[in-house]
Write a structure and sequence with these properties.
The protein is of the alpha/beta class. The chain is built from 11 helices and 8 strands. It folds into 2 domains: 3-179, NAD(P)-binding Rossmann-like Domain (Rossmann fold, 3-Layer(aba) Sandwich), CATH 3.40.50; 187-271, Orthogonal Bundle (N-(1-d-carboxylethyl)-l-norvaline Dehydrogenase, domain 2). It is 48% helix and 13% strand.
């Protein structure tokens, strides 16, 4: 498998494309518009330029990586790929439309993976005619740096598909961990309630945002506190994942804290908006 297809051009798709291209794979990135495709390739180039400036890679290596990436607007260009990774927004209907279309184009033995962080892999697989060749590959942001890939099997995913995806993840320099198809998988199921609890502690005046984050950094050796992490992820994303966990499990501990909801309503979405739990406007 030397050619990998990616459906999507957002932050995660861009990171996956860079990671795969740096590891020598030819990558076909399919976007909905030429502008989105151009932004994706520009994002990869910007990341590579930073690495060159820091002398982590040579300019020749950066140029070679960019040469491995092909942008396209046509789903048909994914037909030559041995594996296709869907990495679009967490919207079931959007994924349904794309998965049904690409499934009809691919060879029968081509593996179709989803980078979903909250939707059922079994349900997404049922939208295709290849449930045995359908699997979850949950990458983490920033993809080129983060080692983990949660490998999520649907009820009908074959052992051969799991083995192939594990091998690919290792070739991408990742640590693949097999997890069951349960809402939030492992990381989000554990991480987002922690972020939620930190927001509750803030709302109850237990400490400041800085104090809560410092407690978790220096008391638990976390590289970043939960509230700063929420700002990095985006409070809209945090709220959406907590809402999904609450809906799936029916447990009130997953319901988004008012401190998160209020900021979402105010448009304080974190770093990307200039303000969240912290003020980034300066």
């Amino acid at each position: 498998m030397q050619r990998i297809g990616i459906i999507g051009t957002g932050t995660m798709a861009t990171g996956i494309a860079q990671n795969a291209a740096q590891c020598g794979y030819d990558v076909v990135v399919r976007g909905r518009s030429q502008d989105s495709v151009d932004k994706c390739t520009a994002g990869v180039k910007k990341a590579l330029d930073r690495m060159v400036a820091k002398e982590k890679i040579t300019q020749a290596a950066a140029d070679e990586t960019l040469g491995h990436i092909q942008g396209t607007l046509a789903l048909e260009d994914l037909k030559s790929c041995g594996l296709v990774i869907e990495s679009v927004a967490e919207d079931l209907e959007l994924k349904r439309e794309l998965l049904e279309k690409v499934d009809a184009l691919l060879e029968d033995d081509t593996i179709l993976a989803t980078n979903t962080s909250s939707l059922s892999v079994t349900k997404l697989a049922s939208l295709t005619n290849r449930p045995a060749q359908f699997i979850g590959m949950h990458f983490f942001n920033p993809v080129p740096m983060m080692k983990l890939v949660e490998v999520v099997s649907g009820l009908r995913t074959s052992d051969a598909t799991v083995a192939t995806v594990r091998e690919l993840a290792e070739k991408l320099g990742k640590v693949p961990v097999e997890v069951k198809d349960a809402p939030g998988f492992v990381v989000n199921r554990v991480l987002f309630p922690m972020i939620n609890e930190a927001a509750f502690a803030l709302g109850e005046g237990v400490s400041t945002a800085e104090g809560i984050d410092e407690c978790m950094k220096f008391g638990c050796n976390h590289p970043m506190g939960p509230l700063a992490l929420a700002d990095l992820v985006g409070l809209d994303v945090v709220h959406a994942i907590l809402t999904s966990l609450h809906r799936e499990y029916g447990n009130p501990r997953y319901a988004p804290c008012l401190e998160i909801t209020k900021r979402l309503e105010a448009g304080w979405l974190g770093r990307k908006a200039g303000r969240g739990f912290y003020d980034y406007s300066g």
